Amino acid sequence: MITTAFDSAMRLEMPAGPAARVSDNFSDFAQVMKSAHGRGVSIQSMQSEADGATIRLAYDNAANMMEMSRLSDDIYLVASNFVPPSDTGVKSIGEDWIRFHFRIGGKSFSHFNGQTVGNDNAKSASLFFHPKNELACDWLLNTGTPLHFVALWCTRRVFSDLVGGEALGLPFACRQIASGVAPSFHYQATTMTSGMYRTVQEVLQAPPQTGLRRLYLQSKAYALLYEIASQVKTDMEPVKSGLSERDAARVMQAYEILIDHFVAPPGLDRLARLVGVNRTKLAEGFREMFGASIGELCNELRMDQAWHMLSSTERPIIDVALSLGYEHQANFSTAVKRRFGQTPREIRQASAG
């Protein structure tokens, strides 16, 4: 279930990531949209498959629609040709997902971390990362401006797999996201390329009911992810790496080992031997590429797994702690509280509520 609430400014509160991912038929998402936009919103169609689901919502007529599709457990797509019937404010809660936004028409603004971002230029592309339990982010959709956009949500693992060994060429914060070391809020605007624009149009203009629609949307989603990963820019100085291409590949190999063994990772000396580089170069190269130490990365991955197990399973908390390498539940609770601002029990209660 999605829990929604209105704050004193009458802003709808809902998760920042794909809020309906726990619902096979997206009924929760439909209720959120109806709450936000009133009785004029109707469910035009709803489909559910073993590994995907789609809901199309219409306001007044079929041409005024918003569609949300679960392409896999790790990727969601929203396509919008939608005119908000009233100024709509959405307060989103961090879920550790990455949102890629491709807008070709309309206006929307967001306020987070003390800054407001928005662009009067209808064409824009951006990457937005909202860590778990961070400050709320407010989104404002303006009345009377048709919102023509495609948005993708994906997990950090999908983004990491996408960029692979090319992570070193990304902006610093993007490398942190890909590596699993969560920065704070991160917003990265970039140029809307002709390829992005064409792909967004193809998604918005595609016939809604075809037997291969989900496969079609998957191909367009990956095309957009490739385009924005290739295009993303930064105002920061380019990365000046002292690593050779060979050493950078070894650091990436070490990273992949840690992804698979983060609960009981090999020590620095053994890890260096496994990838064929000296321990100093490995430690320095790791921080240069990912902006964190090996220990910091492993701890972040443990906390990610802790959040998943606490929020989506019923395993006893002590079992979760032991499975993540904590001998004492008290130490585990302290670590979780420090990372998320909630105890394991509070996370579980909130997820069940």
Q: Mind explaining what this structure looks like?
A:
The chain is α+β, with helices and mostly antiparallel strands and 353 residues long. It folds into three domains: 5-231, Jelly Rolls (Sandwich), CATH 2.60.120; 245-291; 297-352, Homeodomain-like (Arc Repressor Mutant, subunit A), CATH 1.10.10.60. It is built from twelve helices and 14 strands. The chain has helices spanning 27-37, 156-163, 172-179, 194-205, 213-231, 245-260, 268-275, 279-290, 294-312, 317-323, 329-340, 344-352, and strands at residues 5-6, 12-15, 41-48, 53-59, 61-72, 75-82, 88-93, 97-105, 108-112, 115-118, 124-130, 137-141, 147-154, 186-190. The chain has an eight-stranded antiparallel sheet, with helices on both faces. A six-stranded mixed sheet has the order 1-2-7-12-9-10, with helices on one face. The chain starts with a strand and ends with a helix.
Q: What order do the helices and strands come in, and which of them pair?
A:
Layout (H helix, E strand, L loop, with lengths): L4 E2 L5 E4 L11 H11 L3 E8 L4 E7 L1 E12 L2 E8 L5 E6 L3 E9 L2 E5 L2 E4 L5 E7 L6 E5 L5 E8 L1 H8 L8 H8 L6 E5 L3 H12 L7 H19 L13 H16 L7 H8 L3 H12 L3 H19 L4 H7 L5 H12 L3 H9 L1
Parallel strand pairs: 2-7
Antiparallel strand pairs: 1-2, 3-4, 4-5, 5-6, 6-13, 7-12, 8-11, 8-13, 9-10, 9-12, 11-14
Helix pairs in contact: 4-5, 6-7, 6-8, 9-12
